[in-house]
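To make this tangible, we now present a fold written out as tokens:
***
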Amino acid sequence: MTLYRNLILAALILTLGVVSLGAYVRLSDAGLGCPDWPGCYGKLTPHHAADAIEAELAVRPDGPVSHAKAWKEMVHRYFAGTLGLLVLAIAAMSWRGRRETRGGPGLPMLLLGLIVFQALLGMWTVTQLLKPLVVSAHLLGGMATLSLLLWLWLRERSHASHAYFAHVDHVRGAAAWGLALVAVQIALGGWVSTNYAALACTDFPLCQGTWMPAMDFEHAFTLHRELGETASGDLLPMEALTAIHWMHRLMALIVTLYLGWLVVRLLRTPGYAGMGVAVGALLSLQVALGISNVRLSLPLPVAVAHNTGAALLLASLVWLNFRLRRR
């Protein structure tokens, strides 16, 4: 089943690329670069849709459509489509060779269902005009795909180890909570990004010059609403954007303190110091990138790196939990 494992690894690497590309598309305001789905103005590529794009530019030169944005959006779709084909192949191989795989076809079939749902979310992202709930769900679906593929790859390559590992019951629960907290923080980060609230606070560590700025939590966390609007259709107030940003910061502090404590425990657990170093390094990188986004006014490379860093931190905790549960 070497081909099977290689396909999983290829899909895993491609998923990280798709997550990063999705962040790049979202942060460069290219999410509506092609206002239909799955093609671009019904064509396979923006090159074939050049006339339609030019016509849209003539009407709305400052609108969401341009040749560059159309290519960004379609390249993301091409990568996502390739990932879908890889997952389909993995599911088919797992079913045909279900007696040879380590855990059966259940997880690959779950991944296939998730990929289909991700495709629907990608379509709804466009047809619902970047509705925050849909875009955030699409981001979380990408992170879930990455996590499940990593778990599947680890499961298929796992083997008995003769290295010494300490008794880990005291760490297993802590690692599971760490994974859950990072998942919540990623969801909050996605909500910040999809509501364009990253620069609601442009100073650090204060927010608008104070620890507790004016905030509107009711409208901030109303899920069913359009982009930039309240549920009633009014303009989303600045206080709501501030609340979204502030909650992401507060959760970042909680995650940093908790994972810092977890890293110390891992460093003291024989056989897990390397995992502790990896989690600690990725956590430090994420904190630095988050602060840089605020202090440097959200430069695109740093913002995309922050999204990719979140995916890598999540992956490190998935790996840690896999190792702990396999012991």
